[in-house]
From TrEMBL, chains A, B:
Protein name per Swiss-Prot or TrEMBL: Winged helix-turn-helix transcriptional regulator
Pfam family, one: HTH_5
Stored PROSITE patterns: HTH_ARSR_2
Keywords: DNA-binding, Transcription, Transcription regulation
Record SUPFAM superfamilies: Winged helix' DNA-binding domain
GO MF term list: DNA binding; DNA-binding transcription factor activity
Species, as recorded: Neobacillus rhizophilus
KW Transcription regulation (keyword) present: yes
Gene3D superfamilies hit by this protein: Winged helix-like DNA-binding domain superfamily/Winged helix DNA-binding domain
Domain HTH arsR-type: 1-87
Entry-linked CDD domains: HTH_ARSR (cd00090)
Length: 92, 92
DNA sequence: TAGTTATTTAGAAAATTATCTAAATATATA
DNA sequence: TATATATTTAGATAATTTTCTAAATAACTA
């Protein structure tokens, strides 16, 4: 899960996730939303992919990126652990 | 919230949060759990404090650190946004 | 097949972050 | 007041991350 935290620490990558929440997008369509070169975006997409926060599927000439929410669920569980109060008798 | 994501991206800082979940601790007690100098730990504590993930209170010679869960809640909300399915008629 | 489009890979430069040692500050105590 | 303890600040170095340009790969299209 360290990869996920690392991946989430960058604002551009979080913006990519927000874009993908609305709809699946090709690498080029994602890059269009940023003031950054395509190789830089490609690098960010790669980190998101390695963290299992997005999936990539080749479709003809394009690569379509989509959200993968499974790791999001793991991370939420991690956070809930902090918010949740310990019950009496649940000392560890 | 960017500070929080940045702060959470480091494993040592996440370990500090875990220690503080169990009980409040002084800077020295926290440092004791790491193979790292006290100034380095102090730096990490400072980032956590700036992100409002921990609170610090001076008590005599020591500084006692404790969890501040308010930002955790914000971050969980952020994540829930990705996991939660859009309802029909909730198009945005 | 040659040219065009979409995307990635390679390698370097710039920016940021983590860590260290040494010194400073603040509090407690003999 | 002098000394010891707890922690931070300052400043330097090392490591990591972000971003770029140039080149490579892969898939379409005339």
């Amino acid at each position: 899960m360290n990869d996920a935290f690392k991946a989430l620490s960058d604002p551009s990558r979080r913006k990519i996730l927000h874009l993908l929440k609305k709809q699946d997008l090709s690498a080029g369509e994602i890059a269009y939303h940023f003031n950054m070169t395509k190789p830089s975006i490609s690098h960010h997409l790669n980190l998101l992919k390695q963290a299992n926060l997005v999936d990539a599927e080749k479709k003809g000439q394009q690569i379509i990126y989509s959200l993968n929410t499974s790791v999001f669920e793991d991370v939420v569980t991690w956070f809930m652990d902090f918010i949740t109060k310990d019950e009496e008798g649940d000392k560890r």
